């Protein structure tokens, strides 16, 4: 541990006696005591080496449902989580610290409805009743899984807050049309429905943060924006398991289940090849980090795509419309995706990064401060993610590229609260 640190280890929990130290240079830090920062009431300053970033998230009360009318109560808590690095050198570990229901607040309806769950088959009894009475097309349908996300339908670039609901025969897109409070009918309505047998293409999006689906009957195609890699992978695996159960059926229209690839036809290809020293072929290994996030501006959140190459940071406005129809079939018989466009919102060289700021009170937020020495201009990119693991990987990617350029540690600060 760095000579400026004064850290003791007790039962695998590392507690800081002062609040400025390095993590993971000569020893491996597994958990960092949160109370030790709170007791002092100061900000903790971190220089993160080849280590993990300890992160915090909130688990929400849930009501598991296996069959209709069978309910149990979930337990709220606080999760201190550390995840895998980009190189996969860490192992997962999780510590659950229970917290009282009162800390969620009486109006925390998203928590009460269990919309943050990582178990996609657990559902609040009010939602279960709403699905049975107002949503399902057949009386015998049984809920298989559901997930809160945003949908973009081909033909309309608008991003719609939604619940994707999957029964044993149908897939439903429900629109969240108002604030989540009161009864489900007060904020939720059925927007689209398709038989599972009519699903023709299913694809996991770039960076495993979205899912794409197209249906044969109507030609409708959707991009399902999840913005959380672990949740997306888990839900995709569950969904493919359900769908493959229908594949042997002679009425199934399923043609492929695939993963998005970046090729010369992809709308991000020009940005990824912009500063290449040599010609880039389709089989070339591209090095970049891709993140679906939100830009914090004047207290509101705007969807944004963060693209980071080895030299450049981009904030992009990405059109998520997608379709994999016969109209895009190539001469060799392969079917290529039709994707939307991309607009560069902001761009800065990684060399302009002056510091990175993280917040205990907002563990999915990061402020990246940039300083252009030529124009003498200082600015801050305030970003918010749906995933602490992805935020940690973003910081790690920027840190790695920046430190390779300058040969010194990037200034990464952890604050108690944000401004």
Explain this structure.
It is a single chain. The protein has 419 residues and is mainly beta. It contains 6 helices and 25 strands. The chain has a 10-stranded mixed sheet with strand order 3-4-25-22-23-24-16-17-18-21. Strand 23 and strand 24 (377-384) form a beta hairpin. It is globular and about 65 Å long. Residues 1-107 and 327-332 have low confidence and may be disordered.
Short description:
It is built from 6 helices and 25 strands. It has helices at residues 34-40, 109-112, 125-135, 229-244, 269-272, 388-406, and strands at residues 7-10, 13-16, 20-23, 44-48, 55-59, 77-82, 93-98, 143-153, 160-167, 170-176, 188-195, 199-204, 210-215, 221-225, 256-259, 289-297, 300-308, 312-318, 322-323, 338-339, 342-349, 353-359, 365-372, 377-384, 412-415.
Uncertain stretches: 1-107, 327-332
Q: How many distinct helices?
A: 6
What's the β-strand tally?
Answer: 25
Strand content: 35-45%
Distance between the termini: 31 Å
Major pleated sheet: 10 strands, mixed
Provide the helix percentage: 10-25%
What class do helices, strands and sheet pairing give? Answer: mainly beta
Radius of gyration: 23 Å
Strand order within the widest beta sheet: 3-4-25-22-23-24-16-17-18-21
Shape annotation: globular
> Whole-number average pLDDT?
76
């Amino acid at each position: 541990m760095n000579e400026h640190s004064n850290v003791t280890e007790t039962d695998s929990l590392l507690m800081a006696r002062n609040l400025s130290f390095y993590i993971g240079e000569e020893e491996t830090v597994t958990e960092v005591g949160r109370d030790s920062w709170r007791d002092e009431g100061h900000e903790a300053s971190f220089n993160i080496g080849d280590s993990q970033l300890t992160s915090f998230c909130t688990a929400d009360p849930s009501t598991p449902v296996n069959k209709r009318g069978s309910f149990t109560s979930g337990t709220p808590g606080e999760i201190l989580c550390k995840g895998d690095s980009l190189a996969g050198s860490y192992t997962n570990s999780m510590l659950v610290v229970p917290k009282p229901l009162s800390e969620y607040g009486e109006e925390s309806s998203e928590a009460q409805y269990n919309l943050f769950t990582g178990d996609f088959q657990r559902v609040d009894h009010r939602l279960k009743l709403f699905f049975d009475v107002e949503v399902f097309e057949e009386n015998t349908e049984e809920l298989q899984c559901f997930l809160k996300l945003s949908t973009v339908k081909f033909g309309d670039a608008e991003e719609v807050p939604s619940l994707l609901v999957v029964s044993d025969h149908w897939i439903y897109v429900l629109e969240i049309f108002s604030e989540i409070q009161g009864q489900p009918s007060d904020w939720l309505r059925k927007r689209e429905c398709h038989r599972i047998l009519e699903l023709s293409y299913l694809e996991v999006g770039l960076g495993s943060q979205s899912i794409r689906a197209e249906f044969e009957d109507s030609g409708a195609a959707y991009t399902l924006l999840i913005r959380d890699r672990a949740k997306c992978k888990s839900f995709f695996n569950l969904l493919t398991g359900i769908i493959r159960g229908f594949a042997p059926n002679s009425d199934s229209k399923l043609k492929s289940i695939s993963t998005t690839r970046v090729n010369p036809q992809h709308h991000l290809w020009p940005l990824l090849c912009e500063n290449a020293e040599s010609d880039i072929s389709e089989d070339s290994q591209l090095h970049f980090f891709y993140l679906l996030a939100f830009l914090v501006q004047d207290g509101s959140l705007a969807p944004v795509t963060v693209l980071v190459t080895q030299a450049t940071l981009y904030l992009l406005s990405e059109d998520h419309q997608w379709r994999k129809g016969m109209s895009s079939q190539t001469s060799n018989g392969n079917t290529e995706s039709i994707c939307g466009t991309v607009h560069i919102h902001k761009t800065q060289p990684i060399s302009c990064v002056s510091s990175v700021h993280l917040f205990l009170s907002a563990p999915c937020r990061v402020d990246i401060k940039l300083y252009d020495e030529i124009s003498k201009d200082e600015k801050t990119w305030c970003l918010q993610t749906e995933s602490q693991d992805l935020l940690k990987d973003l910081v790690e990617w920027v840190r790695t590229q920046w430190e390779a350029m300058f040969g010194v540690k990037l200034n990464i600060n952890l604050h108690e609260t944000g401004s």
